[in-house]
């Protein structure tokens, strides 16, 4: 491990393990924070809370903001500088180039959602905006651990090339190698996949939108790890889509890569360890997300502004209990971890269910298209207000 990597890890450990930050600075709006440099974030927070997320309760806007944070971060390599500078905003700054990458299909939604707000807040970098919006999105989803946020990313001066973001059609070894080249371990890769517990797919099946990856897509809980381990029996729409595997419940979509992670000997035990262990899942994701959010950046030159973020929403104890969805049980588990049995879980009573699609936020529609056309920040208006009907 390089000296720089050790410095980054030490800095992140300090952020995650420190005692509550001492609040000693009063900003112009009356808010308090630990560092005056963080005051710049409060107007951004107020704007996106009211006008980008609105009354979103871990819905489409939150899912969209979280997804793009990962895609931007992957433009980095420990061994090849041409891959980009990580969490640097290149996914939007060079949207007309990077969004032509097939693996970035659907990130146009995030561009349409966030571009007006980025233009309205030039006081922070594009890289900072993307990661700040993602951190705020996590506070909308019950069950997450309190995220962190470091301010001071340097924006990209060139686009990341195709191939930096892993594809759901890639095998486990390929994905782990690509993400390992950004500095993420296999354990951290699985920790980050917990984001799929609050996510959905818009483009894997071209005939359907908002297909959730588990039956509780508005809750950061361990159901994703339960349901991905169950035998697949159905497609939510058409069969034969690249990157898709059969799911256990109607209405649910399973990524081929997720299915493989749950069953590959290199990752299956890390995957299964999350089942019905909310605390482990949340804490591992918290640490991995903090590391991912500064990939490629010099943390020693950044400021910890974690205390600007809203508090998270606790997950009621009853909802932390994982379960087998109606119509499934222990016999449907495709056991893969060789060193530990799959936990025994209750079966949700009732008839077989169809998981409803995630309602799409109209703000994700706009000039930016999936092929990269229209994805130029300067072409989006600075005014970012939306009507009550749209929120």
From TrEMBL:
Top-level lineage group: Eukaryota
Keyword Signal in record: yes
Compartments it resides in: Secreted
InterPro entries given in the database record: Ccp1-like (IPR044831), Haem_peroxidase (IPR002016), Haem_peroxidase_sf (IPR010255), Ligninase (IPR001621), Ligninase_C (IPR024589), Peroxidases_heam-ligand_BS (IPR019793)
Transmembrane spans: none
Source organism per UniProt: Mycena chlorophos
Residues at the site labelled Transition state stabilizer: 67
GO MF terms, alphabetically ordered: heme binding; metal ion binding; peroxidase activity
Keywords: Calcium, Disulfide bond, Glycoprotein, Heme, Hydrogen peroxide, Iron, Metal-binding, Oxidoreductase, Peroxidase, Secreted, Signal
Disulphide-bridged cysteine pairs: 27-39, 38-305, 58-141, 269-337
Any one GO cellular component localisation term in the record: extracellular region
Residue positions binding Ca(2+) 2: 197, 214, 216, 221
Record's protein name: Peroxidase
EC number: 1.11.1.-
Signal among keywords: yes
Signal peptide segment: 1-18
């Amino acid at each position: 491990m390089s000296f720089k990597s050790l410095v980054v890890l030490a800095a992140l450990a300090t952020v995650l393990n420190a005692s509550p930050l001492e609040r000693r600075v009063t900003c112009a709006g009356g808010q308090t924070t630990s560092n005056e440099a963080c005051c710049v974030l409060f107007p951004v927070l107020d704007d996106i809370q009211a006008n980008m997320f609105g009354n979103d309760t871990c819905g489409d806007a939150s899912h969209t903001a979280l997804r793009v944070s990962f895609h931007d971060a992957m433009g980095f390599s420990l061994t090849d500088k041409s891959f980009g500078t990580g969490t640097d905003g290149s996914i939007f700054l060079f949207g007309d180039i990077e969004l032509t990458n097939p693996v970035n299909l659907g990130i146009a939604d995030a561009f349409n959602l966030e571009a007006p707000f980025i233009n309205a807040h030039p006081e922070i970098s594009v890289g900072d905006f993307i990661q700040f919006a993602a951190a705020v999105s996590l506070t909308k989803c019950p069950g997450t651990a309190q995220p962190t946020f470091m301010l001071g990313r340097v924006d990209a001066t060139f686009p990341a090339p195709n191939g930096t973001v892993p594809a759901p059609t890639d095998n486990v070894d390929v994905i782990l190698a690509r993400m390992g080249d950004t500095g993420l371990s296999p354990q951290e890769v699985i920790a980050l996949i917990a984001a799929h517990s609050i996510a959905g797919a818009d483009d894997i099946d071209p005939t359907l939108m908002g297909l959730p990856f588990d039956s509780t897509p508005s809750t950061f809980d361990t159901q994703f790890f339960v349901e991905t381990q169950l035998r697949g029996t159905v497609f939510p729409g058409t069969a034969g889509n690249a990157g898709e595997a059969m799911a256990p419940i109607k209405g649910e979509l399973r990524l081929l890569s997720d299915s493989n992670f749950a069953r590959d000997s290199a990752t299956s035990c890390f995957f299964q360890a999350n089942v019905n262990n909310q605390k482990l899942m949340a804490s591992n994701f918290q640490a991995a997300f903090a590391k991912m959010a500064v990939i490629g950046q010099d943390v020693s030159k950044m400021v910890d502004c974690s205390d600007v973020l809203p508090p998270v929403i606790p997950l009621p104890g009853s909802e932390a209990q994982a379960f087998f969805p109606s119509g499934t049980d222990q016999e449907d588990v495709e056991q893969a971890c060789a060193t530990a049995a799959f936990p025994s879980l209750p079966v949700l009573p009732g008839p077989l269910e169809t998981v409803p699609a995630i309602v799409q936020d109209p703000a994700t529609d706009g000039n930016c298209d999936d092929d990269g056309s229209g994805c130029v920040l300067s072409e989006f208006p600075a005014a970012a207000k939306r009507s009550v009907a749209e929120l």
